[in-house]
Each structure stands twice: as structure tokens, then as C-alpha cells.
Design goal:
Blueprint lengths: L2 H18 L1 H37 L16 H11 L2 H18 L5 H15 L9 H24 L3 H30 L1
Helix pairs in contact: 2-3, 2-4, 3-4, 3-6, 3-7, 4-5, 5-6, 6-7
Length: about 190
């Protein structure tokens, strides 16, 4: 008798034995359900994080074609959500990955990329100070701080137009306020 036939006979005997034992089957089904629930939870988190990553990465794609200061991006929203759902370190790592991906899709790496990464890292490290304020207030503190520091650096160090910068920063703050009020707790709940 060759090996595959022996294995098949062994598996057949095991299945016949399990079919006779209702308690073993019940325990097996319970184990399958438990593992499914655990897997589904992690699958849900994976899907939500993947969607956030993709949406945040492509949210600045319009900048490749239009040079209008509309202040729309989902990177800050994703950064805040990940801080509140997981940790500042995870948020920083994911935000750096998102920033790299978004820069590849739009204009490539330039000095503003390093400013962006530096600010998200700095704010992530100090986010423990605002975690007790909740997603909306704490998130808005991060978004406002990010925009103020970024806009000052852009104007002073790079020479960007102050009016355009104020418009883009103000719109970004308003957009992120709406996103955090409307979706912040929902997304954090999906990840928790």
C-alpha cells in the first residue's frame, strides 16, 4: 500500500470517529466559530487600515493636475485616527508610508516631503498630551498645530505665498474638523 492511500484511510477513520462523537463535533464547530470571529475582527481592521492607506495616498493626486489651494488631503485624518485607535508609533510609521506613496503618485520627493514627515513625527511623539481630549478635540489640536507650523515653515524657509498658504491651511483645518466630527469615532470604533 502506498503512502497516499494510507493517509486517505487514516483521514477517513478520523472523520468517521468524529462523526460518531457529537461532543467532539460541537467542540469543533465552536472552535471554528471562535477562530472565524477572531479572524473576521483582524480582517476588518486590515480592510479599514488598507482603505485609509489607499484613500490617504490618493487624496492628494489632484495636485498633479491642479495647483489650487483647496487644502484637501486625508493624511492628517488617517494620522489622527491611527493615534487614537492604536498608538503614536504605529501612526507615525503608517503616515510616513502614506506620505511616500502619495509623493510617488503626485510630484515626487521635494523639501516639503521632509517637512511633512518631520512634523507628523514630532506631533506623533507629543500626542500623548492630547489623547485624553478625545478624537475631535485632540485631533483638531494636532491638525491645527500641524497646519500652523507647516505654513510658517513654507512661507519663511521655502518662500511660499502667504495668502495661498493661509487659504490652504484654513481649508485643511475645516475639512479635517468635518471628517473628525463625522467619521473619527466611527473609524476608531471599527479599528478597536
Amino acid at each position: 500500500m502506498n503512502l497516499p492511500i494510507k493517509v486517505n484511510k487514516l483521514l477517513l477513520r478520523i472523520l468517521e470517529y468524529l462523526e460518531k462523537k457529537k461532543k467532539v463535533r460541537l467542540l469543533g464547530f465552536a472552535l471554528i466559530i471562535l477562530l472565524s470571529l477572531i479572524f473576521i475582527q483582524h480582517l476588518k481592521e486590515f480592510i479599514v487600515i488598507s482603505l485609509l492607506f489607499i484613500l490617504a495616498s490618493i487624496s492628494v493626486f489632484y495636485k498633479r493636475f491642479v495647483n489650487i489651494p483647496i487644502g484637501f488631503e486625508l493624511i492628517s485624518f488617517t494620522f489622527v485616527v491611527l493615534i487614537f485607535a492604536y498608538s503614536p508609533v504605529f501612526a507615525i510609521i503608517m503616515t510616513i508610508a502614506i506620505a511616500i506613496t502619495s509623493r510617488i503618485l503626485t510630484a515626487g520627493l521635494d523639501p516639503t516631503f521632509f517637512i511633512q514627515i518631520g512634523l507628523y513625527t514630532l506631533l506623533g511623539l507629543f500626542s500623548f498630551l492630547i489623547i485624553d481630549f478625545g478624537i475631535v478635540v485632540g485631533g483638531m489640536i494636532l491638525v491645527i498645530a500641524y497646519n500652523i507650523i507647516k505654513r510658517v515653515i513654507y512661507v519663511v524657509a521655502i518662500g511660499y505665498d502667504p495668502v495661498t498658504n493661509v487659504i490652504a491651511g484654513s481649508l485643511n483645518i475645516v475639512i479635517n474638523y468635518f471628517l473628525l466630527v463625522r467619521f473619527g469615532s466611527l473609524v476608531v470604533g471599527l479599528l478597536s
